[in-house]
């Protein structure tokens, strides 16, 4: 029995992997260009960094699932992505976030890049349970890593269910002090 090898079977996958890594590593050097190439190279670098970090952290997070301190591992790595991308952040009121008490932070963001701002202040908050729409859970590997890191997903289309989910999270914060 003979079979014809398809195009994909003939590709040297180790070479393809090396080329993909080289392209991702070259992306920051394309930042000095202008227009769409600059935007897309930064966006691809960001997505690749978040995905790789989340993938690497998932096994660690499985050792202590749903612990909000898991996210600190990701933030230590991804806060450096903003430096590579040329984004700077200024945190005002850090003394309020660092206090040993509960607080609510509303981060009404406009793009998926805004989460980089949270990565840069997470270490000040130490124990923080973020809330996000349930659809983000399906953006893997980020969604799975965030879930294992204690992120609370809510169903925005079902207000009573979302309310119950937030009440359960609040109950955990008060009784177990897990968040």
From TrEMBL:
SUPFAM superfamilies cross-referenced by the UniProt entry: Glycerol-3-phosphate (1)-acyltransferase
Top-rank lineage group of the source organism: Eukaryota
UniProt cross-references to CDD domains, sorted A to Z: LPLAT_AGPAT-like (cd07989)
Record GO cellular component, one term: endoplasmic reticulum
Enzyme category, top tier: transferase
Pathway given in the UniProt record: Phospholipid metabolism; CDP-diacylglycerol biosynthesis; CDP-diacylglycerol from sn-glycerol 3-phosphate: step 2/3
InterPro entries per record: Plipid/glycerol_acylTrfase
GO molecular function, one term: 1-acylglycerol-3-phosphate O-acyltransferase activity
Pfam families, alphabetized: Acyltransferase (PF01553)
Every Phospholipid/glycerol acyltransferase domain range: 90-177
EC number(s) on file: 2.3.1.51
GO BP: phosphatidic acid biosynthetic process
Keyword field contains Acyltransferase: yes
Positions of transmembrane segments: 12-31, 43-63, 136-154
Keywords: Acyltransferase, Membrane, Transferase, Transmembrane, Transmembrane helix
Protein name: 1-acylglycerol-3-phosphate O-acyltransferase
